[in-house]
Amino acid sequence: MEFNESYFAKHMAPISGSAIRDIFKLLGKPGMISFAGGNPSNAALEPDVIAPIAQEVISTIGAPILQYGATEGFIPLRESIQRYLLDSGVPCEESQVLPTAGSTQGMDLLLKALIDPGDVVLVEDPTFLGALQTISTYNAKIVAVPSDENGILPDELEKAMKQYKPKLAYIIPTFQNPTGTTLSVERRRRVAELAAKYGVLVAEDDPYHDLRYEGETLPTIKSFDKEGWIVYLASFSKIISPGMRVGAMVVSFPALLRKCVIGKQSSDLHNPLITQAIVDAYLRKGLLKEHVKRILVGYKKQLETMISGFESFPEGTKLTKPQGGLFVWAELPENINTTALLQKAVDNGVAYVPGTHFYPNGGHHNTIRLNFSNSPEDKIVIGMEKLAKVLKENN
Ligand SMILES: Cc1ncc(COP(=O)(O)O)c(C=O)c1O
What we know:
The chain is α/β, with parallel strands linked by helices and 395 residues long.
């Protein structure tokens, strides 16, 4: 007998591996400068701070920390996340907070609770590749809603809500991945109003909320939510540690929260108690604010260095200059195909993600997403020079 494609479930058929993960496979070469991933800088992680906290929670809590825990989460963590969220402008009760394995799992649980094959999910155009992959797992029909430099266009969103009568829309309002754009305050208010008017749940995925290098923090979409249609997805991946896999979802409708809890039971039963307790202790000790303040200094410099690097890019390149987050997005002259040039760039020692992967309907081969958090400034300078050379040679 031969094991072949016919063994796979039909619902897995539309899903390809993440292009970013595939690009990672190209990065083994020594000296490679990668603008591809979305990792926080290693310099922004704090092993020396986390190690004693881990020791402390294990010694203090003892055996129960190694036990099974509640799907609803480690109670002290729910309290400290609620406090963090209130501070971030996310109105919520502690009972509405469900700790998740990153915001990825929050989106997965929502889809699991709501989506039958063929149901429409509205997304920004372009949007986060990981979310596209998660949505595809449920065989949803993905409908891309046009966006501009101020985020998703509310009139287009309304049109799509009327036309498709979806249950769910997915929006990244702050320093969007991949474009770095931020949804304006007025549009945030409109999104909340439209969600209530048409009865569409909106997943507000906000992992970059705290990574602001300039300008004022904006109110969350959730802060305009009067009825409960906005599900807020929070993550500590970009500000404490992606590897600990701690995030949370805020779900206002109790019946929906219950379905998410049931969905989580069959996914992973609960988040590991150890990582929940570590994040809880970290938040209770009040370490987050100072830490974020510190990492913003480095990220801001890295962003500025990357933006300067665009000076040597082909004429006609248009880039977003984000006020925060981890990415710069650019539209190159029409005749430059970043998908086709990736291998050549990698051969020259620099990697990126071709923009096409973020568009549900493909195309846009002249776009590119560059991450700056994961390369020190001197490497950003060299990497941008190498990239500019490859792009110009092929212009
Ligand atoms: C918009 C967005 N959502 C979610 C994630 C994944 O976050 P988490 O580690 O919390 O699952 C990312 C990471 O790149 C992201 O950019």
